[in-house]
Design brief:
- It is a single chain.
- This protein is an all-alpha fold.
- The chain has one domain (about 35-175).
- The chain has six helices and no strands.
- Helix 4 packs across helix 5 (about 140-155).
- The longest helix is centred in the first third of the chain and has 25 residues, at about 35-60.
- The protein is globular.
- The chain starts with about 35 loop residues before the first helix and ends in a 14-residue tail after the last helix.
Length: about 180
């Protein structure tokens, strides 16, 4: 007996079918003024993504882009939570580097972690746009990075403005930011 199912068979995608994260993350919290709440939300995402990140590393004999800062994703999450809440009290996270350069290293590392976890999903081919839509539209990390970019562009620090303009949020996701 043959049955018809409305679903597309595995391996085939319907037009317009977007990227789906390998885990179900909680929606980002709205209130970014509570450091503990922001940190816990980031840590929860990291914990849920960790098995996929480990899968990514396993497929690549332990190689990963994560590591330029020397910090773990959890420590980076704590720094980002503090930064987004106490922006004006921010201190350089890496000794000997400016706040902008130190932050960039941390932001790169945490984005590598999320990206490598997301692309570990079996049988998935994803575009930069699909990953960006997921990261900046559906994760706490994306929400935090957008808020930090907004703050950096409002500062009188030229190095911060250059960094915020060029590297924090991809061009195709800037519609989500205050400055576009």
């Amino acid at each position: 007996m043959q049955e018809d199912f409305p679903d597309t068979p595995p391996g085939e995608q319907e037009e317009g079918y977007g990227y789906a994260c390998p885990v179900n993350l909680a929606p980002p919290v709205e209130n970014l003024s509570d450091e503990d709440l922001v940190r816990r939300a980031l840590e929860q995402e990291i914990a849920l993504l960790r098995p996929w990140y480990e899968e990514f590393k396993g497929r690549r004999n332990g190689r990963t882009a994560l590591g330029i800062s020397g910090w773990t994703p959890e420590v980076i999450a704590a720094f980002l939570a503090r930064l987004v809440v106490e922006e004006d009290k921010a201190k350089p996270p890496v000794e000997g580097l400016s706040l902008a350069v130190g932050f960039k290293r941390l932001a790169d590392d945490i984005r590598y972690f999320y990206t490598e976890a997301a692309i570990a999903r079996p049988g998935t081919k994803t575009s930069d746009l699909e990953l960006g839509n997921w990261m900046y539209g559906e994760t706490m990390l994306g929400k935090v990075l957008i808020e930090i970019r907004n703050w950096m562009l409002d500062r009188d620090d030229a190095q911060m403005k250059v960094l915020a303009t060029t590297t924090i949020v991809p061009c195709h996701q800037r519609f989500r930011t205050k400055h576009g």
